[in-house]
Every structure is written in C-alpha cells, then in structure tokens.
Design goal:
RNA-directed DNA polymerase from mobile element jockey; mainly beta; 199 residues; six-stranded mixed sheet; three-stranded antiparallel sheet; 13 strands
Length: 199
C-alpha cells in the first residue's frame, strides 16, 4: 500500500490542494480545495482513507470546508465518515460528489448507500443544503440525477444558500454555487428525517 499522497498546483490567482486516499495513485479522481490568493486559510491534515481534503477558511467567521469524493460502488461505512467528521472543527461544510441516491436530496430513487448516508446525516443532526435540483447529467441515457451533496453542521446551515448552475460548463456535473452569508435566513431542508425500523 502506498503512503498518503497529496498534490499542490498553482493557478492564476488561486492555489489548489489535491488530496487522495492511501490507495490512490493519481489525483485525477481525488478531492481538492481551491483557495483564492489572499484568503486566510489553514489546511487540515486529515487521517482518513477517504478521498477528502479540508481547510479552515477565515471570512467574517472561521468555517471548515471539506471536499469529499465517494467513488461509485465504494464500501465506505458510517464509521469511516464519522472518523472524518471528528477531525473537522465546527462549523463545517462537507461538499462533493457522493455517488449516492436518495429522494432526501432530490434523486428519484434510493440505493443502499443512499440509505446509509441518510441514517448518518440524521443521527448526527446535520443539515442537507441541496434544494432538490439535479446535479449530474448522464450523456448515454440523457438522464439526470442528484449525486452531489452539500451538508452542514447545524449552526451554519441557516447562513447558506445552495443552487445548481443551469450550464454544465463542459462537465457532466452541474456546477454548484454555495453562498455563505452570515445571518442570512434561508429555508434549509429541515423536513428530512430518517425513521429507523421498529420506531
């Protein structure tokens, strides 16, 4: 098994930090964070096998932003997600391509991994920021689905607004615009809850 690998690259006006899991040989499908030069941020050295990168960003308040990629058909568990979340200072936002399906965030179907994530979100009182818009376009079938998520810790959720861009911009994922406005009142998705069997 290879040691954890990270990749740093510069763009005009920005810097980007790639982070891949211990078994990832190239950063092509790993998570990364892009920071505008001049923004005060501090990278978090995550101890995880997940494809994740995180940093604390100092805006009007300090917020932790974590980019997470869950590959299709991965067997990531609640435990691995919990171990990741424990490393994130609050308040935090977890964003990324989760490759899971559930009506809780706008998809037309629910798979096993989607149910697992529903449980994890509900058990930890996290807030789903998605509005229900579709986030992925499958060119072979000309169909859409919602597999990209934004999840927030409760204290910051009401200050966030989420929207999917209408233009794919050359990708198969619609760009997500997440706006953080302190004290901005936003109708977050608080109607979702998971009822365990037997309740």
């Amino acid at each position: 098994m290879e040691a954890d690998r990270s990749f740093t690259q510069s763009f005009v006006g920005f810097s980007v930090k790639f982070a891949s899991s211990a078994t990832q040989k190239v950063p092509s499908s790993s998570s990364h964070n892009l920071h505008k030069n001049g923004t005060r941020f501090s990278e978090i050295d995550l101890k995880t096998g997940l494809h994740a990168a995180a940093a604390t960003i100092s805006l009007e308040k300090t917020v932790t932003i974590c980019s997470l990629y869950l590959p299709p058909n991965s067997t990531d568990s609640k435990l691995s997600l919990a171990e990741l979340i424990e490393q994130l200072p609050k308040p935090f936002l977890v964003l990324g391509d989760f490759n899971v399906h559930s009506p809780a965030w706008g998809d037309s179907c629910r798979d096993g991994r989607g149910r697992m994530l529903e449980e994890f979100i509900a058990e930890n009182d996290f807030i789903i920021l998605n509005s229900g818009e579709q986030t992925f376009f499958h060119s072979a079938y000309h169909s859409t689905s919602a597999i990209d998520l934004a999840v927030a810790s409760p204290s910051i959720a009401a200050e966030c607004s989420w929207a999917a861009h209408s233009d794919l911009c050359g990708s198969d994922h619609f760009p997500i615009v997440l706006t953080l406005t302190p004290h901005f009142k936003y109708n977050v998705n608080t109607s979702f809850y998971y009822k365990k069997k037997g309740d």
